[in-house]
Each structure stands twice: as C-alpha cells, then as structure tokens.
Amino acid sequence: MMSAETSYSPPAPNKVLGNDDLVGEILSRVDSPTTLVRAAAVSKLWLRVASDRAFLRRFRARHPPRLLGFYVTGDWMPRPEFVPTNTEVISAASLRRAAGSVLHAFPEFSSPGVWDSRNGRVLFDHGQAPAAPDRYHAALLPDDDLVPSRGDDSVLYLFHAKGDKLSVWLRRMGDEQQLVAGEWVLRDTLSVKETCGHLVEPGPELASVVGVGDNAEFAFLEMGVGDNYFVIYLHLGSRKAEKVYQRDPDNDDIIQVHPFMTVWPPVFPSLDSDEELRLG
After folding, report:
1. Which of 34, 191, 214, 276 is the most buried (most CB within 10 A)?
2. Is 280 exposed, middle or buried (0-12, 13-18, 19+ CB in 10 A)?
3. Which one, of 156, 146, 102, 116, lies nearest residue 256 by Cα?
4. 3-state secondary structure at position 125
C-alpha cells in the first residue's frame, strides 16, 4: 500500500510525451510536413512544439522540401500535363487526381497554361484559343540558354547550357532586391555527356534547360535526337539523373517544366474559442 509520503511517479510514456525537448526529438523524425501537421493535432503541447520557429528551422534542415511532380506545358499544348515523381509523400493516384481536378475546372474550349509553381501552389492562366508563342514575358536575359532560379536569402541563380557544359552561376541581391555591384560567381559546372549520356542518345545540341528548382537544387534538361526526346531530372548535389518524361514525337514545340513541391511552412491547427484543435 502506498504511503502518504510516497510521491506518485507518472508512467514513462507520460514523462516522454509531456516533455518539450523529447517531443521535439520525436517530431523531428517524422517523414514529411504533412505528417508533422497531423502529429501537431495530438495536443496543445505538441502543437506548440511543432510550430516553434527554432524547431521548424531544424525540421527543414533535416527534411527539405521535396519534389512531388511537375507540370509540362508548351506554347501549343492544349493543356498542361502533370507527372508525379514522389509517391513516398503522396500516392501517384492522389497527385494525379488533385492535378487533374484543377485542370478540369477550366472550360473545355479554353487553353490553360502554367505561369508558375511555387511552394505547393500553381498559377494558371487560360484563354479562348491556344496561347501565342510570345505570351511569356518574364525577364530579359543575355542569352536564350540562361534560365533563372530563385534562391533563399536574396540570391539569384542562372543556369547556362552550352555544348557539353551545364553551368550554374549565382549573384547576391541587395536589400531593395536590386543586384549589388560585383561579378557573377560560378557555383557549379558539369559535363552533360558524363552525367546524362547513359540515359539518352544526345543530339547535336546535347541539352536544353526546360525547368529548374529553387536554390539551384535541380534542373530539368531536354535531350534526345529524332523522335526520341526526353526530359531528364538532374539533382545538382548528388549528380543523380533519371528520365522522367518522353515528349510526344508529333509535338516539336518548345516546352517548359514547372516543379511542384511540398508546401513550406506547414499550415498548423489553431485553437478556436473552445480551446479545441481545428485545422487553420
């Protein structure tokens, strides 16, 4: 029989799940921001730990945003095509349903296009007729083979494909989002043949850059010859390359690839007037 002087010791799980530091260690090991949001709904303590800014910085470093898929669009393509690439976070069927439901919302006679895709959101436009080739006016660059990539901390990257060489340049921007004085710095360079030549028979121009990821993390290259043109996903850090899309041989338009990434930061539950967790 327990005496009055004997202090009560809570069960071990309560000690763990009620400790901010231990909960933080547990939450930092979940596999995705989606799972983190679900875990945050367990209790107010877990929500407080998961939504803490310092914790989110550590979580992002361990689980950087992932590529879920990409949209392929072209000047004369009737509709963008969505291609799922990462089924570890969301199933390919779910991704296709989500992407398809958005595209089917446009009238059949319209020609929706993808202007941009960022942080889990897609910016569409649509018209009454197929888009004209000069619809896009985004930036004036010194060479048609330069493709810009947005970067964190006010950094601008440029991808340049010429011959066998793919180069990535960077330049930092000022507080007013103006380019500061100084030269472009070469961040990375690689041989297209050595990195991607085993996947596709290269044509005379070897490769063109049709899409890039933020912070110059990856690039989409179009390579091929004759009727066999493919889009290659190339991760710059690991040099991993793989074929992810084959162009329709009857379509010789210039295409663009827009990556579709996981959302960051996650949207957490909030507390209503009754102090109950609900999705915000």
Report:
1. 214
2. exposed
3. 116
4. strand
No. of helices (H) and no. of strands (E), the chain? 7, 15
Residues 6+ apart with CB under 8 A from 1: none
Average pLDDT over residues 261-273: 77
CB 149 within 8 A of CB 157: yes
> Tokens in use for 230?
């493919």
Would the CA dihedral through 266, 33, 60, 15 be positive or negative?
A: positive
Straight-line distance from the first to the last Cα atom of the chain, in angstroms, rounded to the nearest whole number: 48
Residues forming beta bridges with residue 70, ordered by sequence position? 83, 259
Residue with tokens 């070469």, as numbered in its chain: 186
Ordered by start, the domain boundaries in the chain are: 12-64, 67-261
Residue range 85-132, pLDDT digits in tens: 866 656 666 666 666 556 665 655 556 677 677 766 677 666 544 443
The H-or-E segment that residue 209 falls in is strand 208-212
**In this structure, what DSSP letter does residue 151 have?**
E
Q: Model pTM?
A: 0.74
pLDDT class for 252, splitting at 50, 70, 90? confident
The one-character DSSP state at 98 is H
The helix (run of H) or strand (run of E) holding residue 165 is strand 165-172
Task: Say if CB 103 and CB 112 are below 8 A apart.
Answer: yes
Range list of H helices, 10-52? 12-17, 20-27, 33-40, 44-50
